[in-house]
Design brief:
By secondary structure, the protein is of the alpha/beta class. It contains 24 helices and 29 strands. β17, α15 and β18 form a beta-alpha-beta unit.
Length: 705
Amino acid sequence: MPDTTGSRFSGLTPLLAPRSVAVLGASSDPTRISGRPIAYMKSQDFKGALYPINPNRAEVQGLKAYPSIAELPEVPDVAIVAVPAEVAAPAVVEMAKKGVKAVVMFTAGFAEMDEAGEAAQHKMVAEARQYGMRILGPNCLGVFDARRAYYATFSSSFDSGWPVLGRIGIASQSGAYGTHLYTLARNRRIGASLCVMTGNEGDVTVGECIGWLAENPEVDVIAVYAEGIREAPGMIAALEAARAAKKPIVLQKVGRSELGSKAAKSHTASIAGDDAVTEAVMREFGVFRARNSEEMLDIAHTATRKIYPVRNTLGVITVSGGAGVLISDVAESVGLAMPEMPVEAQKKLRELVPFCAPRNPVDATAQVSNDVTLVKTFTESMVKDGGYSSVLGFFSMSASSRRWPAMREQLNMVKDAYPDRLYTLSVIVPPEGRDQLEADGWVVHEDPTRAVVAIDAMGRFGAAFAAPPPAPAPAVPAVTLPSATPTEAEAKTLLGAAGIASAPEAACATAEEAVAAAKRFGFPVVMKILSPDILHKSEIGGVLLDVADEAAVRGGHALLLQRAKAAAPKARIEGVLVAKQLKGGVECILGIHRDPVFGPVAMFGLGGIFVEVLKDVVFRRCPFGADVAEEMIRSIKGAPLLLGARGRKPADVKALAEMLARLSAFAVAAGPRLASIDLNPVFAMPAGEGAFAVDAVIEVDPPQA
């Protein structure tokens, strides 16, 4: 049993690595749902105690059967429940009272069905937790760990073969897709020994399972299939544990589309949340989000080498110029650097093979078939002279030639001399040939483009593992939200207390006050209708720009009041807001959205078409410091407009980052009643001149009774 004593997720050990297993509703038929776990564990020689529970039989599949949990000779670590829902719920609570610490619940008919099923599930879980019991499921396909011959599952995937032992752990919300992933891995001879499938997640979540895998010394790489994140604290703690242990996580998260999101909710009764938020949280912790199962397994398998370059560079040796171009295209598309070989090294290689192409990719040509020592010479030059952290060799069908054993020997000489690099091969070999190369220490991918994606992922893991801890979020005063959504002026006052600057402005009840304010600020000014009931002022013509003189201010004041009365006759009108009109800045948008799972999430982007049409925005879980805020700002596609593109004067990115960080801290300090914040536009002025919110909308939920 893995030693996770005292760890954050050790409470799952009786569930995921038990010493004794009971099966409630055990069947003598090894093909039935309640018979398969016993058949599997018997055939694979489970070393722990196995207790079938069936009041109608004296023995089940050659094992002594017991009429009830009370009749067992000991309290088992875990019980598998495979009886109807109306029987299952009271049985689970009874077992909890007897001291059973965990249940794997195959039984369906709970939250995935209807509201009544959800209520029954909640009641059962709440009662079980009073006694310290953890429940996997209900409506789950269970868990297996081939290292222990522990098979608390009824998956039929084992009818076609058993897992390849290895150090990849799979956590999946979907049972069918979890075993699909395992079967794909097995068929590719990839070692995924452990798979846990969470089903409805009435209790145990996929996040907690990730955390347990992160703390398990027998697991090096974690592959995850998720349809929706149900519970944030456990997930965040799990991601932190995995990063601290330098265990890469490869995630296949579905529900990106609106249609897919709805399907995920109905399938698992989980909260899908906003996919963009999930993406941001995963990026924060260095999780690689795979586009499909093939990519997930490519990356997970490559990661088992445990070589994660912090500054990843790719050197390619090939016998095909065309393959070199293809590899280069993919590397550029994913952002994987392929620096040229040093000039002197290129010269030496050309002296050996005048018609080679030694820049990188290094095309050694088919000449290596005539002189296999060239394989070592070219590859070693790449590693030694080029200094690449990752090496990809494209040898295609060469691996089927009679010269391949000698070429393999030459390659291994380089690999053994420089063991700190990541070595991959793109070759076509039979399974036994692949096994030999893998045993040598190579990662084998038939498709070189898939190899490039996997190599790039290793560098991303390395950068995440090596990243210094982020700076703390700025301190802001305590925030007391009003009972209702504030006006723009009130919103800016609240934000100003947190150090979030806005353009100089004044709330004016009369035209005379508006004129006085405009004189103080200097013309031109901006005028806006001031009402807590009109949040989107521009939609009703409630914003006037370039108001240039006193007469224009008086006329503007009357016009705004007239437009507000016509568009929203019942709205509360508190006057007009007069503000200094800023010139020369870059328009940005800063916002806060309260995600139902992860809480307040900050957004940053450029204003105008960039957010409305191109959706060039970035998200981050709150709170964070100015260093993270600046990373966000620099990460968007439109960042060059802030950094001085085409002769522009750079914007005050430091001030903009400080504002974004303070906004993130304000969102947390405001508490759960804060629904959203929209600062649009924010003017990032030229460097050294600050950043100012020109418009501010804060939406709040009413106080709870």
